[in-house]
């Protein structure tokens, strides 16, 4: 008999479009949660929308430079 916290392995068969849809939904959910958290943090810090946008631009340039080696 399995304990309460043990998980029984399972296999799920999905079509490629169904799998792709699940992946997109998971990515959207992660994006939404991160955006919500960032908004709450910005609000707690008293940042204006313009300040947040400026910070996002700086981060975008940094990520681009790291990924592509230029800015």
Can you tell me about this structure?
The protein is mostly helical. Helices cover 70% and strands 0% of the residues. The longest helix has 30 residues, at 16-45. The chain is elongated. The protein starts with 15 loop residues before the first helix and ends with a helix. The model has no long low-confidence stretch (mean pLDDT 91).
Could you tell me the strand content as a percent range? under 5%
Number of helical elements:
2
- Helix percent band: over 70%
Taking all Cα atoms into account, the compactness measure Rg is 20 Å
The major β-sheet equals:
none
End-to-end distance: 59 Å
Shape verdict: elongated
Structural class: mainly alpha
Order of helices and strands: HH
Q: Total number of β-strand segments?
A: 0
Mean pLDDT comes to: 91
Number of domains: 1
Q: Unreliable segments (pLDDT under 50, ≥5 consecutive)?
A: none
Keywords, separated by commas or semicolons:
71 residues; mainly alpha; 2 helices; elongated
Topology:
Elements: H1 16-45, H2 49-68
Write a compact overview of the structure shown.
With 71 residues, the protein is mainly alpha-helical.
């Amino acid at each position: 008999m399995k304990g309460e916290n043990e998980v029984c392995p399972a296999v799920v068969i999905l079509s490629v479009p169904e799998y792709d849809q699940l992946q997109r939904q998971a990515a959207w959910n992660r994006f939404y949660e991160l955006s919500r958290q960032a908004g709450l943090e910005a609000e707690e810090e008293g940042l204006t929308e313009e300040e947040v946008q400026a910070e996002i631009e700086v981060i975008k340039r940094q990520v681009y430079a790291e990924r592509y080696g230029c800015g």
